[in-house]
């Protein structure tokens, strides 16, 4: 059985749909070509599966999707789309997240974790995804600008989260000074 990304559970193949949108206007666009889709492990780097050719499907409403093989353990995976936005344009990538749950009862219940360790993992994954995709900060398609968080900002976030985690683990320094009473 194949299930949608939002209901992904172990031992079921997963429909990973992708809409291509301009970031500033939220308008959809149809890419010139999609060369492949990689399913990445939770480290954001290890390729579990590569999907090409006729296995990349465009449905009747213009959305693209692939059917990823079943994942045997609960974890977060990523689907990385390699596409050319327009004829003659430079190929770029878009990476999406998919949580594979242990049971159907858990599916779709994920909320964004706000603890520093989880946020640090998310920032590190974003940095890895950007570096694997060419580290492009912005690009223009058909006169519309698309922008991502600059890598410098992601690195600052990572450093701040590391400091906060260290402070919580007793790694912070405190200074005290003594004065003669008046």
Features:
alpha+beta; globular; 2 helices; 4-stranded antiparallel β-sheet; 182 residues; single chain; 4-stranded mixed β-sheet; 10 strands; Immunoglobulin-like; 19% helix
Please, could you describe this protein's structure?
The protein is α+β, with helices and mostly antiparallel strands. The chain has one domain: Immunoglobulin-like (Sandwich). It has two helices and ten strands. The strands form three sheets. The protein has a four-stranded mixed sheet, with no helix packed on it. Strands 4-3-7-8 form a four-stranded antiparallel sheet, with no helix packed on it. A two-stranded antiparallel ribbon has the order 9-10. The termini are far apart. The model has no long low-confidence stretch (mean pLDDT 81).
